[in-house]
Structure formats: structure tokens, C-alpha cells
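Reading a protein record of the kind used here takes only a little practice. An example makes this concrete, so a full record is given next.
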Amino acid sequence: MISSLASALIPGLGQLRNGQRTKGLVLVALSAVMATAAAYMVWRRQLTLLTWGVQPTALGWLLIGNGGLLAVRTYAAVDAFTNSPRRVRRPAARAGSALLGILVAGVLILPHVVAGRGLILDKDLLTSVFAANPAPVAPTTLPPLTAPPSGPTASTTTTTTTTTILPIRLWEGTERLNVLLLGGDAGVGRRGVRTDTIILASLDAATGDVGLFSIPRNVAQVPLPESLGIWSCNCFPAIINELWDYGVRHPDRFPGARPPGSAALIAAIEEMTGVPIHHFALVNLDGFVDLIDAIGGVEITVTERIYDSAYPHENGTTEVIDLAPGIYNMDGHLALAYARSRQGSDDYNRMGRQRCLLQAVSAQADAVTVARSFANITNTIKNNLLTDIPLERLPDLIQIIPKLDPDRIVAIGFVPPDYTGRRTPDSYNTPNLDAIRHAVNTVMELPAAEAIAALGLDSFSSECS
């Protein structure tokens, strides 16, 4: 049985122990080749592994390989056992041998069960969340980017020459991929979805530069394409975080391939910024609690005191939140409170905290942590993510990961007074389209460091420290 355990650990060792020199050397050599290939992939080709991890076909082949490796290890263990000359027949020894047999079976089977389950969960997540064959998105008519604003005058409607921009795959004729990141507050005691977090992320395929443009939840009269003809102002009269729910309740007013809620919000953000939005991703903010708990919490630096005497708990109750400046290891509930609380501050302050939370989660979710909690993470994502990012685009997105650097991220919040103009009768800010489009144009046209300097911004990494 010792020989069997040896070959279960490293195929061929048990054969060598039994004196089967040729067979043992062949199996050990095969094991060495497989181990070397695996080590090479882990240490030198991590990007390739990540790319395989977002392709169902590759995952299928990995499942087959996992089964093949189990077959080789099982053959080696069984062969070593059946050819062992040292079988013990005493009753006490047979009991120990049985326990050793259970250990051998565990060593053989458990790693492959864990690996196979992870591969199946990954494949199920990809095929259930991401569109395998996305429907084509209708062409979008957008205003061109404007010159720098000459003054603080706001503009909610402008007459410009329009251009038609067709969404195309990254690295196939377009320099940037623009994705609308949304946080919805659907939950206990709430009707519909309000998008309290709205961030347009723009990725430069060549340099890895990233622009993060945060839109306040309470900006009103955001522009809509004139072709929709819904309101005479060619705008959404209420605040922007109600626009998704309006689209859901009036799907006939936002026709096309996209879900009506996303179609409504994307139309407004495209008009505001003057750039096409290729995809969107909506995350239920309450699901963020489960995600952060799944990775074991997150370390956050609180730079200013956060006090909320009636913070709305996920279960529908309220509680007191009081965070003094300092470094915290937050669980999911506290991290969500850090990102959402606005009592004693405002929507604009918490927009910065939301960006910092995203940075912290991405920086601290290392491979070991993700692997350990993979089942919980995939379940949370499946239950709390809605997106039109197609499955075929995920490998392209993986390719940009090595280029990402916090110092190459330009983060802008379109907050007053620079990016807002006149107020509505009920005291909501309206967007200053000239200022917003100028900022977006600057980020799109200049390298990250030059855009940060030109717009007088802090670096993304210093904002969250």
C-alpha cells in the first residue's frame, strides 16, 4: 500500500519502489514533464491561463485533461499496489492498510474533484452571465466632442452636427473600449432599480490608460437623443438614477437590442459625454456584501470621518455608522456602508469612496483568495450581475490586464461647480455638457499623466490613500 500511495503522489515512484525500473522511470518522466509544463504555465504564462479561464471551449478541454490526469494517476497507484511484493496479511496490519487505502483514494480523487468543480462552476458562470451570441447593437447617433468651454454656462441641449458610430470589437479598428459600470440599489423595501453608482470606464487598448468618469446620481435633465422625441426638452426631466427604471417601465420608448433600462441610460450618457458606449454591467450593490465577504473582507483607508445616524441596512432596518479616519479591515456590510453613506457628506464625496472601494477590491482579490472562495464568488456574481458584455470579448479584456496601473487611471467626478450649470426648480444640478465633453476629450486624446495635469486632478492612487 505504501507503493500505491507513492505512485498516487508521483506516478512511477511506487513502481520504482517495487523494482519495476523501466515502467517506473517512464511514469516518473511523464510526471516530470507534466509538472514542468504546469509550473511553466503558472509562473510564465499566467495571462494564457486567464484567457483559457474565460473560454468555455478551453475549459472543456481542461476538464478532459483533468480526467486524463486522474486516469494516469489511478493506473499508477493501482499498478503499484497489485505488483507490490510486501503485502501484509495480519489482521491489525489489514486495518492499517485499509486506512492507508482511504488515504490513497483521497490523494487520488480529491484534487481532481476540486479542480473539476471549479472548471464547471467557471464554465456555468460564463455561459449564464455573458452573452454567447450577442445581438447586434443598433448604430448610435452622437454629438461630436466639443472644444474647451469658454465659460461656466450650462448646456442641456445643443445643436451640433452628428456622426454615426458603430460598436466594433476591441483591437479591431477602435482604440478604446467604453463600458458603463452601474450599481443598482434593488433590495428590501425598494421599488425597481435606482442606479446610485454610474461610472463610465474607458480603456485604451494600446497603452492601458483608463478613464473613470463618475456621473452623480442626482444630476437632472440629462440629454437624450432628439430622435427619441419623448420630451420636448430632449432630456430626462427627473434625476438620472430614475432613468433605468423609467426605461424598464416604458420599453417601447427605447427600442433596440439592449434591455430597455440600459438602453435609456446609455443613450443619456452617450449624449452627455459624446462617446459611444459599447457595453454595460449592472451590479446589485447589496450583492457587493456577499462578494467582499467571499474574499475575506477588504482593507480600506478612511481619509475623512464618515458618520450616518440612520444608514439603511440591507435588511430594511437602519443603524448608526461611525468611521474615524484610519485603516480598516471591512467586511462586506461595512464596505458597502463606506461606499453608500452620504449623511454628513454628499453624493459627490461618496463617488470618490466608491472608486476607492473598487480599487481596493481589485488590488486585494489575489489568485489564492479567489481560488479558495471561488464557489461563493461565482454564485454571487451570477445572482447580482447583469451585463451585455459578450463572451467572445472576454479574452480581449484579459489581454489588457498587464497594462493596468493605478498611476495610469484618470478619475473624474462630474460634480459642481465645474461640471454643472443652472439648477432645476426643485434644486437639482443640470449637466454642463461643454465642460463634460471637454474633460472626456482630454482624457481620450492625451496620455494619462498629461490628462491629469491638464485637468488639475489628483492621481487615482493618491486619491484613495
